Amino acid sequence: MRDIDEKHHMLETMKQDYDINVGLERAADKYIKRISAELSAFFVAHEKDDHIDTSILRKSPTIHDLTQLKTLAKELSKINEINVKKRKMMYLSMGTTNMELYLQSLMGLMMLPMANNAFQLMEKTLLNEFRDEYQRQSDDLGIDKPLTTAKMQELSHQAFDNKKPVNAFWQSFDKILANLSVELIKAVQQGVSAKGWAKIVGGR
Hints:
The protein is mainly alpha-helical. The protein is built from seven helices and two strands, in the order αββαααααα. Helix 4 packs across helix 5 (149-156).
């Protein structure tokens, strides 16, 4: 009977992992289309002879550029996650400095809604999986000691390998953003064509 229970648990875990991946992919598709459209609009605003104008890296962001940052930031106003708020304010500030930092800020503000979506899903998954595992082991050991949701939330977010899940998630986001920004800046430095830009952003 124990073997059957273990197999059932394994199958349930596999199904949960599959459902999570499907949910992430569907959400990502929606956000990626928006990001692609925004980057295509950036190319149109800064193209010269069907190539991105490399001289923009020696200039400050235009009023149009800065307005776009404010528009993207405003769309994040309803998100209460502290890590989103901190990054939103940072991007708004550094995006006014020069075009390289502007591009990183633009990417950051565009990616934050997708990151928040994934983060909320991670939070929910950690709690649900901890609850299920605690219940399963309690049943196996004959323990009748229910935990409050708050306690489960606390325990499910304990540090693993000296790193809490929340910190690991946002540090990974920062690294991904940095790498994407470097590639985008390289494309501007090379003065890629409209066709080359489209390959990078997946649109236009």
